[in-house]
Amino acid sequence: MQKTAGDKGEAFDNFDEFARDYRDIHNENIRLTGADSQYFSEYKVKWLRDFYGKKEPSDVLDLGAGDGTCLTYFSQYFPKAKLFGIDVSELSIEEAAAKNIPNAEVKAYNGTEIPYSDNSFDVILVATVMHHIRFELHEGLMKEALRVLKPGGRLFIVEHNPWNPVTLHMVNTCPFDEDAVLLKPGYTKSLLKKSGFRKAENHFTLFFPRGGVFKAFHFLEKYMAGIPIGGQYVTVGEK
Description:
By secondary structure, the protein is α/β, with parallel strands linked by helices. The chain has helices at residues 22-29, 37-52, 69-77, 90-98, 138-148, 165-172, 185-194, and strands spanning 59-63, 82-87, 104-108, 121-127, 149-160, 199-205, 232-238.
């Protein structure tokens, strides 16, 4: 049955039940991609690094940080940055805290009010989070993200592309995506504009499997960012 925004009884999917074995479940679910869960976390941070080029942000927020895996890669690729991670899952935040990530502060939050002051961050990453939040709460959360961004700061929303059949199969067979409602790229771009972002643009990624002979084609993906069939997409908003 087609899922719509409103099927879920809770405002946010509860990941506490998956906090201890999230990576194992994810690895099993994405085996056909030829890569593991860690690969895709690192891929997101490397993509963000390449977007910035030589510039390094000083303050980074991972909104929906989960077990902190993306923060570990932020620490690697942006070693001078101050890192912050928040999530509604207290058990996931416990997992993140146990990693003792350099330059990182992690804490649970209520899912609606970001617990930082105005103009705090150069970068906010929201990686595969929005499809677990009821649609009527999206605009409020994006306005909160805009509030805590510095002028000229950027928000990066990474989402599964509902136009990609392989992505749809993995989402539909993943235990912690049971209640997920995927966001169409046009919706996400419009959401940021409606929420007050000065600029918003979509970039499509992950067109090829990650292993075997397909590795030879990965270099082409940077030239394909405007083709809306990649496995995921990144919506970049600027304050």
